Amino acid sequence: MKLNKNLILIGMMASGKSTIGRLLGKRLNIKFFDTDFIIEKKSKMKITEIFEKKGENKFRNLEKKIALNLINNKQSIISLGGGAYLNKKIRDAANKKCNTIWLNWNSKTIIDRINKKKIKRPVALNLNDNELKNLIINRSKLYSKAQYKINCENMTKTEIIEKIIKILNL
Ligand code: S3P
Question: What is the pTM of this model?
Answer without folding.
Answer: 0.97
